[in-house]
Every structure is written in structure tokens, then in C-alpha cells.
Amino acid sequence: MTAALIVLAVVIVIVVLMVLFTLGIYNGLVRSKVRTQEAWSGIDVQLKRRADLVPNLVETVRGYAEHERAVFENVTRARSMLQQAEGPAQAAEANNQLTQALRSLFAVAENYPQLRASENFMALQQELSDIEEKIAYARQFYNRNVTDFNSRILVVPNVFIARMFNFQPFEFFEAEEGAREAPEVSFQR
3-state DSSP call for residue 26? Predict the structure, then answer.
């Protein structure tokens, strides 16, 4: 074997190793990106479930408190914003507004003892509470995946591959300070 063939073989081995190394990092980044997108999907599903539940809740309360139009309009507007939100930042903002609107709705419900005793209303509140817990879990899962992905695209040597293939960081799903609690679901006075 000549020296030229040995050099050529070494160069080919180095190139193959570099390609495999790059593919390994690229595939790891793609898997992390897909996990983050899947985690966002979990939040999106719960937010849609919450938005779908709101009309039933509003109609139940409306039957008892028809004159509270401003409250119903605020809930409807916040629900619409949540349904039209695109991306984590808009969804978080819309979710926070819906939470505030639902708090007003529950405050109105406090004035109607028959409403609070209604099985339908109680079931809707319980379901809403369950969805709030699922949203909190999904948000935590999503943000954990965002942290992992965003860290991966910033560390060496991944940063070079991430820049080469234009991987962008994801936004965190952040709740406002006042919206960190689930809407009031208590029937206690």
C-alpha cells in the first residue's frame, strides 16, 4: 500500500466520522425539537378542552344571572382569544385572560345559591378544575422540554450544527403572576 493510499484512507475515515458525528448531533436536535413540539401539543389540547368547556359553564350561569352581561362578554372574548392564539406567548396571554374572566364568572355565581347547588354547575367546575391541573402539568412538561432543547442548541459542539441547520429556540409557556392559581372552584362562603 502506498503512502498516498494510506493518507486517502485516513482522510476518508475522518470525513466519514465527521459526517456520522454531525448526523448524530443533528438527529439528537431533531428528536429534542419533536419532543418539544409534542409537549406543546399537550398544552394546546388542554387549552382547547378548557375553551370547549367554557360555553357550557357560561350558559349554566346565564340561566341564573342573565343581567351579568359584561361578565359573559368578557368570558366569551377571552375564550375567543384563546382559540385564536398562535404560539406559546399568545396562548399564555389568552389563557391568563380567560382565567381572570372565569374568576369573575365564579364570583357572580357566588351570589346565586341555587346555581352553586346545581349538579350541572358543580360538575362543570370540577371538570374545569381537572383541566387546570392538566394544563399545569402540560405546561411544566413543555417548559422542561423547551429547557432541554434550548440548552442543546447552545452547547458546544451542538451550537455549530444548530446554526448550520437554523434550529431556533422555543418560547416558554409562562403564566402571569396573578394567573398561577386555578380559578376558584369552592362552594364555601
Answer: helix
- Residue 41's SS3 state is helix
CB 22 within 8 A of CB 161: yes
Neighbour-count burial of 58, counting CB atoms closer than 10 A to its CB (0-12 exposed, 13-18 middle, 19+ buried): buried
Q: Cell numbers 406559546 label which residue?
A: 88
Distance CA 28, CA 123 (A): 44
The enclosing H or E element of 164 equals helix 158-164
Q: At what angle do helices 119-152 and 3-62 cross, to 10 degrees?
A: 160
CA 69, CA 108: separation in Å to the nearest integer? Answer: 11
Q: What is the pLDDT of residues 136-152, one digit of tens each?
A: 899 999 999 999 999 99
CA dihedral (46, 47, 53, 58) in degrees, to 10, reads: 160
pTM over 0.70: yes
